[in-house]
Amino acid sequence: MDNLIVAVAQYLLFFILVTATVIWFYLPRHDKVGLAVQAIVSLVIAVVLIKLAAAIHTDPRPFVVDPSIKPLFAHPPDNGFPSDHTAVGATVAVLVATYRRSLGAALLTASILVGAARMAAHVHHAQDIVAGVLIGAVAVGITAAIWRWAQPRLPRRLAELTSA
Predict the structure, then answer these.
(1) What angle do helix axes 126-150 and 84-97 make, rounded to 10 degrees?
(2) Residue among 74, 97, 93, 77 at smallest CA distance from 85
(3) Which of 49, 68, 84, 89 is least enclosed, having the fewest CB within 10 Å?
(4) Is the pTM of this model over 0.90?
(5) Using H for helix, E for strand and C for coil, what is the string for 54-68?
(6) Distance from the first to the final alpha carbon of the chain
(7) Cα separation, 85 vs 132, whole angstroms
(8) What is the pLDDT at residue 157?
(9) CB-based contacts of 13, cutoff 8 Å, min separation 6
(10) pLDDT digits (tens, 9 = 90+) for 126-158
(11) 29-56 vs 2-25: helix crossing angle, rounded to 10
């Protein structure tokens, strides 16, 4: 069981990213451009929010709080707040959901599984995971607002690529 927890905690995020890329390939051209631009902006915003949250709040990892707890994989004893893995997975999942709702929901479920596995592996607390999901949702929300504002103002050639 520990091997499954470790695999999910460390590698399911890559499956989420690859799946999002495959979904992107099957989108119409105008959606591809929109998703690509929003993905870059969303991930940049998510990274900024992760850094900001970590600077504001410190949550020592479970194995740091209680040395009798052993993590299931090697991990530095740094600040566990928020979960970077969960934040990136949730950002990608929520963004995919804006184009393909059911697939995005499946990826969001996978992102939450990543967080749960990282808790089971003793490298995060629940608040780290919740914060990661919220950061992903906020990053995509900010990006969607920016995109709605910017898209009608794009140069004509670029606007033709991003509208149906």
Answers:
(1) 40
(2) 93
(3) 68
(4) yes
(5) HHHCCCECHHHHCCC
(6) 48
(7) 8
(8) 63
(9) 85, 88, 89, 111, 114
(10) 999 999 999 999 999 999 999 999 888 877 666
(11) 140
Q: Which amino acid is at 142?
A: I
| 3-state DSSP assignment of residue 72 | coil
Q: Convert the pLDDT of each residue in 87-134 to its tens digit.
A: 999 999 999 999 999 999 999 999 999 999 999 999 999 999 999 999
The tokens for 126 are 């629940």
Residue with tokens 């963004």: 95
Q: State residue 70's pLDDT score.
A: 96
Is residue 92 a contact partner of residue 58, using CB atoms and an 8 Å limit?
no
Q: Cα–Cα distance between 116 and 107 in angstroms, integer?
A: 14
Task: Give the DSSP letter string of 108-163.
Answer: HHHHHHHHHHHHHTTS--HHHHHHHHHHHHHHHHHHHHHHHHHGGGS-HHHHHHH-
